[in-house]
């Protein structure tokens, strides 16, 4: 009997360890804390922002004058070659899907206590193109968004937006295309889900803001919508 219990315990341990890496997903060096993705040192020293406490902040400043924005926040500041950059890299390119959802849930708990985010109705992630979905197999922004939605106990509408065409790399774009950015790349697919809603638009990384701005402008065409934003990281130029 004891051995059966031990076997079950071992099985459960093996099963949960599938989700957790054996090195920290930020420093890529130390062992993570038990049942966690990060080591103690990274958990404490990662550059988290306090943007969620300020309606106007470095994130909203970057989008100033470009749209009607309620507020916006990023979980981490991305400093070149910094620890948080590794987290984003692992999520985007190394299949760290559970890390994306887990960070979302963690950040959702932070936002739940922030008055500026108290009346959010739905989470809408920035979509990826169907061809990228085929090759990557997951949308990292949707995983992060689902995590936030879980903690806020609200829906995450992964298909509310549609990415209509593939993004060309900056170098392949014409000068005119570079200037007009990502206009026309996104469309609202499920407008009825968004009418009259306070939307939290979620992306992985905020750099110039062109992508998230383009999505926000499409959502704002739906009657009665209000936009707030949350990303895993914001590039610190
Ligand atoms: Zn670490």
Secondary-structure map:
Elements: H1 2-17, H2 40-45, H3 58-62, E1 71-78, H4 83-93, H5 97-112, E2 122-125, H6 130-136, H7 140-152, E3 161-163, H8 175-180, E4 186-188, E5 198-206, H9 210-219, E6 226-235
Parallel strand pairs: 1-6, 2-5, 5-6
Antiparallel strand pairs: 3-4
Bound molecules: zinc ion.
Key phrases:
237 residues, alpha/beta, Rossmann fold, 2 domains, four-stranded parallel sheet, two-stranded antiparallel ribbon, 38% helix, binds zinc ion
Instruction: Report the helical percentage.
Output: 25-40%
Query: Which series of helices and strands comes N to C?
Result: HHHEHHEHHEHEEHE
Query: Can you count the helices?
Result: 9
Describe the sheet with the most strands: 4 strands, parallel
The Cα radius of gyration reads 19 Å
The CATH class of the largest domain turns out to be: Alpha Beta
What binds here, in terms of ligands, is: zinc ion
Q: Helix- and strand-based class?
A: alpha/beta
Residue windows where pLDDT falls under 50 for at least 5 positions: none
Terminal Cα span = 60 Å
Overall, the morphology is globular
Stated plainly, the CATH topology of the largest domain is called Rossmann fold
Total beta strand runs: 6
Quick check: average pLDDT?
90
With strands numbered from the N-terminus, the spatial order across the biggest sheet is 1-6-5-2
Tell me what portion of residues adopts beta-strand conformation: 15-25%
């Amino acid at each position: 009997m004891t051995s059966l219990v031990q076997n079950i315990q071992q099985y459960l341990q093996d099963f949960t360890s599938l989700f957790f890496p054996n090195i920290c997903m930020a420093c890529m060096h130390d062992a993570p804390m038990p049942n966690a993705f990060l080591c103690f040192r990274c958990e404490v020293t990662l550059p988290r922002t306090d943007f969620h406490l300020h309606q106007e902040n470095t994130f909203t400043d970057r989008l100033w004058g470009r749209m009607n924005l309620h507020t916006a926040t990023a979980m981490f500041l991305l400093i070149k070659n910094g620890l948080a950059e590794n987290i984003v890299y692992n999520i985007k390119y190394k299949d760290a899907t559970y890390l994306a959802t887990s960070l979302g849930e963690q950040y959702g708990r932070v936002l739940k206590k922030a008055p500026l985010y108290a009346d959010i109705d739905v989470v809408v992630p920035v979509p990826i193109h169907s061809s990228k979905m085929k090759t990557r197999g997951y949308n990292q922004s949707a995983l992060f968004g689902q995590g936030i939605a879980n903690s806020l106990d609200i829906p995450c509408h992964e298909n509310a937006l549609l990415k209509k065409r593939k993004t060309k790399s900056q170098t392949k774009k014409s000068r005119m295309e570079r200037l007009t950015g990502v206009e026309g790349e996104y469309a609202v697919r499920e407008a009825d889900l968004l009418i009259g809603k306070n939307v939290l638009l979620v992306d992985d990384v905020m750099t110039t803001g062109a992508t998230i701005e383009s999505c926000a402008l499409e959502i704002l065409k739906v009657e009665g919508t209000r936009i707030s934003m949350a990303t895993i990281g914001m590039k610190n130029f």
